[in-house]
C-alpha cells in the first residue's frame, strides 16, 4: 500500500476500499476471539482455507476467509458469519466446513443444524438473536467485523477518519472540548471524566512546558474479565486512533500501551496494527502529511494485578518495581517520569474516535445523564450466555443478566451479581432492576469497575464468595502498606472462622470496623476497595452470615465444615456408582438396596452427588 | 527537587488550632513544629517518605468532604481542617496496632507504642513469635538513599514480603555503618545486622567496602 501523505488521500483510499467491499464478494468471517479459539476456531478457519483452495472455486464465488475478533456470543462458539447473506452459524466444527462450502456458499442453502436456536426458535442472522438485540456497539464497533491484522479492512470501516477530522478541522482545544461535552467517563474502574482529565493535563503542560505522555491501560487483571482483551485483539486500530487523537490534543509525541503478558494475541495484534499504521503513514513521523509526529510503544506487564493501578503502572513502565505511591499530586501533573500524563483504559480509548467523528453532543445523548455512552461487560458465572456484551449505560441489570444473558442455566432466578471485579460489590436479586450506571451502582454499595459481571445462583455461598475475592486481593497486594498487607489477611481470618461456623455476632461488627480501617487506611484503591464484596454481601445477605455463625449451617451447601451429605433411601436404587467413586471409600451398602455414607470418614468432596443419576444424594 | 518558596505561608488548622505551614511542609512537619504529637513508624527525616505504615493518619476535612490521609506525605492547603484524633483516625490506628502486635510480637518498641494507644493484645494469628520486623522499609531506604550502597532490599511481595540481602547471602556491599539499625523503629535490624554484613572479621581488603 502507498504511504498516505494527506487527509484527502485517506478519504480516497477509504472510498475505494469500501467500494471493493460492497462488490458483493462472499466473505466468511470466522471468530478467532479468546472464547472461540479455546473451542477450536483456528481449526475451523484452517479447514475453510483448505477446502476453498482444494475446490478451486470460480472467482465470483470464492469467499474471502476473514479471521476476526470476538463476536460476543462466546458460549456458542466457534462462530462463523457469512457475507452478504448475514447467515450466522454457531458451534461450527472443522467437519462442518465442507458442507458449508458445498451448500451455503455454492448454492445459498441454509444448513439449519448450524443455526442458533433457543426455546424452539432458530435464528438465521445475528441481529435477530435475543442476545444481540438489546446491545449497542460503540467501543467494540468493529470487533468481530474486521480482520485486525489487515489495516485496509479497518480503514474500509472508517478507522483513522476521526483522527483525520481532528487534524484537518479541529484545534487541540476543540478536541478536548468535544470529549468534555461527550460526558465520557473512564472505563477502567474509577469513572473519572475523561475530558476533565485531558483538560488538566493540558493546563499542567502549559504551566510546566516539556514532554507529555499518553498511556493506555491494558492490564485487565480482574478475574473473568476480557472486554479489553477483545478490543485490543479484535480492533487494535480503535485504541491506536484514540491515542493519536489525544496526542494531537495534548501535543504528545510518545505513547505507551501497557498490556499484560498473559495476552499474547493482544500484544501481537497491536504490534502488527502499529507496524502497518506506521508503514502507511498513520503513525510515527509526519502522520497523514500533517507534520505531526507521534509514536506508541508497547510495554508488557508481568501480570501483577496491582500494576493496573496508575502510579504502579507508571513505575513499571519506568522499569521500577510496580508499587503504588501516594497520589496527593495527580498524575495529570506528575505521572510518567514526573511529567504530565494522561492514562486511560482500553475501552475509554476505543470510544474517542466515535466521539470525534459523531460529536460529543451525539455521544452524550446515549445512556443516562452522568453516565453517557455504552459499557462493555464480560458476562460470566452462572449464566446461560457467557460472553461479551455492550449496552447503553442505564439499562436495568436484569436486562443484561436475564434478557441478554438468558438467566441462570437451571430453573429459577439468579441469586446475586458481582459487578466491578474483585473489589466491586455483590448485588442481590431484589435489586435486579437497578440502572447500570456509575452513580446508581455506587449508591447501592457496588461499583461499575471495569465491567466484569459474575452471576451467582443459590449454590453459591456469599460468605465463600466474599472470601474468594478477598483472598485474590490478598495474594495480589503489593505489601507496601500495613492496612492492606495485614488487614486483608486479618479480614480473611474472620471469614475463615465464619465458614467453619466459628465466631460470634460481635465478630461481624468488629469485622465491619476493621473493613472501615482498611478502606480509610490503605494506600491505594486495591486495599481501599477490597472490603466491598464482604460489606455488600453482609449488607444484603446478613442472614446467610448468621446462619454460618449461629446455626452452624451453610445454606448454599458450600462451606465444607458445615455440610453433610446424605443418601435418600427412597431415591437410591443401590446402583453403587457413588461407592465406586468415593475417594474415602466411605459409602457402603448392598447392591440394589439403599446405600449409606459413613459421616466421620466423608471429606465432603461432593463427587458422589455430582455423579448420582437419581438425585438421591442431598447436602444439608 | 521541589522549588520551595520559603516566604509563602499556608494557613489551615490542626484540631481547630490555626496552623501555618511553609511551602513544601507536610501536615506532620507542621504538627511537629506546633508540638502536636502524631505517632509515626516508617517516617524518618533522613529519607523520602513512603507512606507504608499508615500509623500517622489524620483526617482532612473541607466542607462536606473528608478523607483519611497520611500526615507524613500530605501537603496541607489553604483552609483545610486537619483532625489528628477523629473517630476514623483512631479506628485505623487501633487496627493497625493490633495487627502489628501479631506481625512483630517480639518487638518491645511496638508493644510499648500499642500500649500507649490502649492496644494490649491481639486476636490475630501469630506466625512467628520471634519476629520483630514490620516491613516498613526504612532500613532499605536509608541504605540506598543515604548510605548509597543498597546492601539490603525488600524481597517478594504481599504477605510474603521480607527484608533480605540481594540473593540472600551476606553482603559485601555493606559497609557496616549501622544506619539501618539507627533508623529501625522496631529493633529488628539490631538482630539482623550480622546476617546482612556477614562476619566482619573475615573480610579482606581495605575498610569495609571491598
Ligand atoms: C489495583 C488496581 C488495579 C487496576 N487495574 C486496572 C486495569 O487493569 N485496567 C484499567 O484500565 N484500569 C485499572 N485500574 C484503574 C487505573 O488506576 C486507572 O484509574 C485507569 O486506568 C484510568 O483510566 P480511565 O479513566 O480511562 O478508566 C486499576 C486500579 C487499581 C487500584
Ligand atoms: S493498598 Fe495494598 S496494593 Fe495498595 S499500596 Fe497498600 S499494600 Fe500495596
Ligand atoms: S528491619 Fe526495621 S527498618 Fe527495616 S523494614 Fe524491618 S522494621 Fe523497618
Ligand atoms: S470469542 Fe468468538 S464470540 Fe467471543
Ligand atoms: S509514618 Fe506516615 S505512613 Fe508511616
TrEMBL record, chain A:
Protein name: NADH dehydrogenase (Quinone)
Pfam families: 2Fe-2S_thioredx, Complex1_51K, Fer4, NADH_4Fe-4S
Top-level taxon of the source organism: Bacteria
EC nos: 1.6.5.11
Family: Belongs to the complex I 51 kDa subunit family.
PROSITE patterns (UniProt xref): 4FE4S_FER_1 (PS00198), 4FE4S_FER_2 (PS51379), COMPLEX1_51K_2 (PS00645)
Claim: Metal-binding is one of the keywords in the record: yes
Record flagged with keyword Iron: yes
GO molecular function, one term: 4 iron, 4 sulfur cluster binding
Keyword list, A-Z: 4Fe-4S, Iron, Iron-sulfur, Metal-binding, Oxidoreductase
Domain named 4Fe-4S ferredoxin-type: residues: 563-592, 593-620
TrEMBL record, chain B:
Presence of the UniProt keyword Repressor in the record: no
Domain 4Fe-4S ferredoxin-type per the UniProt entry, residue ranges: 122-157, 164-194
Annotated CDD domains: fer2
Keywords per UniProt: 4Fe-4S, Iron, Iron-sulfur, Metal-binding, Repeat
Entry GO MF terms: 4 iron, 4 sulfur cluster binding; metal ion binding
Highest taxon of the lineage: Bacteria
Keyword Transferase in annotation: no
InterPro entries per record: 2Fe-2S_ferredoxin-like_sf, 2Fe-2S_ferredoxin-type, 4Fe4S_Fe-S-bd, 4Fe4S_Fe_S_CS, PSI_iron-sulfur_center
Pfam families tied to this protein: Fer2_4, Fer4_7
Domain 2Fe-2S ferredoxin-type: 8-88
Protein name, per record: Ferredoxin
The species this protein was found in: uncultured Desulfobacterium sp
